Amino acid sequence: MARKEILLNAFNMNCVGHINHGLWTHPRDRSADYRKLSYWTELAQLLERGLFDGLFLADIVGVYDVYQGNVDLTLKESIQLPVNDPLLLVSAMAGATRHLGFGLTANLTYEAPYLFARRMSTLDHLSDGRVGWNIVTGYLESAARAMGLAQQVEHDRRYDQADEYLEVLYKLWEGSWEEGAVLNDRQRRVYAQPEKVHKVIHHGEFFSVEGYHLCEPSPQRTPVLFQAGASSRGLRFAGEHAECVFISGNDKSATRAQVDKVRAAAQAAGRDPQAVKVFMGISVIVAPNEAEARAKHAEYLAHASAEAGVAHFSSSTGIDLSRFALDEPISYAKTNAIESAAAKLRDNRLTRRQLLEQHALGGRYILLVGSPTQVADELLAWIDETGLDGFNLTRIVTPESYADFIELVIPELQARGAYKTAYAEGSLRHKLFGAGDRLPAEHKGAAFSVGANSFAKQAEGLPLDPLDPLGSAARSLANEFAPTH
User: Fold this and answer.
1) 20 to 30 A from 399, CA-CA: which of 56, 197, 430, 449?
2) Is 66 exposed, middle or buried (0-12, 13-18, 19+ CB in 10 A)?
3) Across the strands, what pairs with 284?
4) What is the DSSP letter of 2?
5) Are 248 and 365 in contact (CB under 8 A)?
6) For residue 166, what is the domain's CATH number?
7) Could you tell me if residue 470 is inside a domain?
8) Containing domain of residue 237, as a range?
9) Is the residue at 466 inside a domain?
């Protein structure tokens, strides 16, 4: 039986310190060049040489100010501050590559859906269909205050808002412009056919939109949808919307359970459980032999900041971990931050000393250290024993971490039939799923396409008069069949 091919994203962020904190001080680390376009285009070209499926760019709105009640350590260690906009990098990187995909984090809580739809469609056009969106709702109180709110919207309520946000986007991306709406006919002086471009009418609890999508259909229409929520409400959202889910694993049995939950959520939403690709964050230190890899690990540890890692985790939980003595059990408190992160403290057994030990390399992702054979063995064990589809590979020292992996681990995986030897043609969605550029028919968003809505309206006996597409008696159905025609 053919071995499952590992999917692989580089995990990064438009900042100095991302996951493995303190490594910006390493003499070979170039992360402080994040402000330079060449840093990103060269990285994209490196990843494409390694046949990476994508560059997954994290992002936050707000700052990590929970630890010690201020941003002092955050600024000293550059714990995701300063941080620049990830979306603005894509045009240049797409122009420097041909196949590499781009997973872009954007917080929907603070983005108007109408304008966000245009930005993503623009990037999908400019990249020839290589963009994905990592859907986040935010978790930092500092972001809420910066955006003019007294406090952050409650956790589950943020997902209610996200459901409606996605509905608006599906209507814009999938339903506003029909297939064939664009003629680009110079002789007849018709670029787009008015009868095939439809106004979206949406009046919901959170959003009101009446307007035409500003972009003609991009190669994918809807970008590939990524999501990382691990709470029960986040999993329900993922089951309905996500095509790729990013999880954080601690051990194989817990990861297996998390993968099963993701697939069960998709099945509960009426989707094929295998229609979702599940990625886990992982860090790798590899060298030609184990002794060299261990030496490199020791070298990296000398530059890492465990305290910065704990400060990051402090904001993830919403709990100021600096208040606890080194060996004092950390008291759990329900917060409005990342529910799954705070849950790790629920049994009141962890101490700050233990957290510092866990964050020895500045981050808490699974770390693999060894020779190419050893690393490949362990990666394949994670795939085989957990049901994962792939990994988000962090940077420890950049770009060294990626370059080492490409030079040493990729050939080993390829020799075992566990990694591609060439890119498939087509969009990011087609590369990942092999089923075309657009959302599959069973995905919730596909129901908002013009054809699907025409069929539904006819089945309901609703009028299709272009001057009154929904009919005055049927306005209450506008949200269900919003792309009008």
Assistant:
1) 430
2) buried
3) 368
4) P
5) yes
6) 3.20.20.30
7) no
8) 7-445
9) no
Contact 309, 21 (CB under 8 A): yes
Cα separations in angstroms, 431 against 12, 128, 277, 291, 424: 21, 13, 12, 37, 6
Determine the distance from the C-alpha atom of residue 222 to the mean position of all C-alpha atoms in its chain, rounded to a whole number.
14
Rg (CA), the chain: 23
Query: Has 155 been labeled as part of a binding site?
Result: yes
Separation of CA 405 from chain center? 22
Q: How far apart are CA 108 and CA 321, in angstroms?
A: 28
For tokens 């009426």, name the residue. 270
Round to whole Å and give the CA distance between 253 and 122: 41
| Per-residue model confidence as pLDDT tens digits over 90-117 | 999 999 999 999 999 999 999 999 999 9
Is 245 a residue whose pLDDT tops 50? Answer: yes
Mean pLDDT on 357-375:
96
> How far is it, in rounded angstroms, from Cα 22 to Cα 78?
8
326, exposed or middle or buried, with CB in 10 Å at 0-12, 13-18, 19+?
A: exposed
Question: Do residues 75 and 58 touch, judged by C-beta distance below 8 A?
Answer: no
CA-to-CA distance for 97 and 431, rounded, in angstroms? Answer: 15
Those residues whose C-beta lies under 8 Å from the C-beta of residue 174, and which sit 6 or more positions away, are 221, 222, 439, 445, 446, 448, 449, 450, 483
Domain assignment of residue 240, yes or no: yes
* Plot region of 370 (φ>0 → left; ψ -120 to 50 → alpha; else → beta): left
Using CA atoms, how far apart are residues 469 and 68, in angstroms rounded to an integer? Answer: 57
Which DSSP letter does residue 416 get?
A: T
Angle at 129 (CA atoms; ends 125, 130), nearest 5 degrees: 120
Taking the C-alpha atoms of residue 408 and residue 382, their distance in angstroms, rounded to an integer, is 19
Q: How far apart are CA 290 and CA 310, in angstroms?
A: 29
Consult the annotation and say whether 191 binds a ligand.
no
- Tell me whether residue 453 is in a domain: no
Question: pLDDT tens across 64-97, in order?
Answer: 999 999 999 999 999 999 999 999 999 999 999 9
Is 371 annotated as contributing to ligand binding?
Answer: no
121 is in an annotated binding site: no
Number of domains forming the structure of the chain? 1
Query: With contact defined as beta carbons under 8 Å apart, do 247 and 279 qualify?
Result: yes
DSSP string, 219-281: SSSSPEEEE---SHHHHHHHHHH-SEEEE--SSHHHHHHHHHHHHHHHHHTTS-GGGSEEEEE
Question: What pLDDT, in 10s, does the model give residues 126-165?
Answer: 999 999 999 999 989 999 999 999 998 899 999 999 999 9
The reply, when asked if residue 65 is annotated as ligand binding, is: no
The answer to whether 128 and 73 are in contact (CB under 8 A) is no
Q: In Å, what is the CA distance from 132 to each residue of 127, 137, 242?
A: 11, 16, 11
How far apart CA 230 and CA 238 sit, in angstroms, is 9
**Cβ atoms 131, 90 nearer than 8 A:** yes
